[in-house]
Design brief:
This protein is of the alpha/beta class. It folds into two domains: 166 residues, 3-Layer(aba) Sandwich (Rossmann fold); 49 residues, no CATH class. 44% of the residues lie in helices and 17% in strands. It is built from eleven helices and seven strands. Strands 4-3-2-1-5-6-7 form a seven-stranded mixed sheet, with helices on both faces. A hairpin with a 2-residue loop joins strand 3 and strand 4. Helix 4 packs across helix 6 and helix 5 packs parallel to helix 10. It binds magnesium ion and zinc ion (ZN). The site of magnesium ion (MG) has 7 residues, from loops.
């Protein structure tokens, strides 16, 4: 079993990436333009970071993250995974600049994180999208499906936890899905079986009870989707 979890609005309470742009730059009209389909997520990020004011520095952003709220059950979930020998990986279409200090704050900085990179160099803010994918049709700068395909073994039961549009390609390729928000609506509309959750306490509850009983199995549709994705890569 391997667990993959989204960051914004799943581990964190609220969307930290959106708040970052609201706090240090201009969120609108860029955000509306993104959802209208005017440009890609990567391009949205480039434009949003270009609106950052001079007081946006790596230090001020790090200090700002101290006020971001995390679902308190995330630590319970991470501890359960560690005790059960299950690898937990964070997959995010957000940035290392806020994810890493937040994980550090709660003592979970050893977790592997797949995300976009934002750093200050002598040329100013520099963005990198190491998880970008041309073969996936997803709405993201960091493809979560590919993070799953690259790190899971054939026999692994893949568990995915998320809430938004950037989670849809991963959910289609996962055996067990925990969903809320837009992702839950997407799963319902597309016939992807899922456990609905409100907080990570709900997820821990289901994980504990199912693993104590019959356990989780691979899902036929997800196996096929993974096979097709490998063939196309
Ligand atoms: Mg999210
Ligand atoms: Zn994708």
């Amino acid at each position: 079993m391997r667990l993959y979890i989204d960051f914004d609005n799943t581990i964190s309470i609220g969307d930290v990436g959106d708040e970052l742009v609201r706090t240090f730059g201009s969120f609108e009209p860029l955000h509306t333009e993104l959802h209208r389909g005017d440009f890609t997520v990567a391009e949205y990020y480039r434009r949003a970071v270009a609106t950052f004011r001079a007081d946006a520095t790596p230090e001020s952003i790090r200090a700002w993250t101290l006020n971001v709220e995390i679902d308190p059950s995330f630590v319970t979930l991470a501890t359960w995974c560690r005790n059960s020998n299950i690898t937990l990986t964070v997959v995010s279409d957000g940035f290392d600049i806020y994810i890493e200090p937040l994980l550090q704050r709660i003592g979970l900085n050893e977790l592997t994180v797949h995300c976009n990179r934002l750093e200050m160099t002598e040329k100013g803010w520099t963005l990198q999208f190491p998880g970008a994918s041309e073969s996936c049709s997803c709405f993201c700068a960091s493809c979560k499906r590919n993070a799953l395909l690259r790190t899971a073994a054939d026999e692994d039961v893949i568990i995915y936890i998320g809430d938004g549009m950037s989670d849809t390609c991963a959910a289609e390729h996962a055996d067990v899905v925990f969903a809320k928000g837009t992702l839950a609506a997407y799963c319902t509309a597309n016939g992807i079986p899922h456990h609905h959750f409100r907080t990570l306490a709900d997820v821990v509850h289901v994980l504990r009870s199912v693993t104590q009983k019959q356990g989780f199995r691979q899902r036929r549709q997800a196996q096929l989707a993974r096979k097709r994705a490998f063939e196309r890569e």
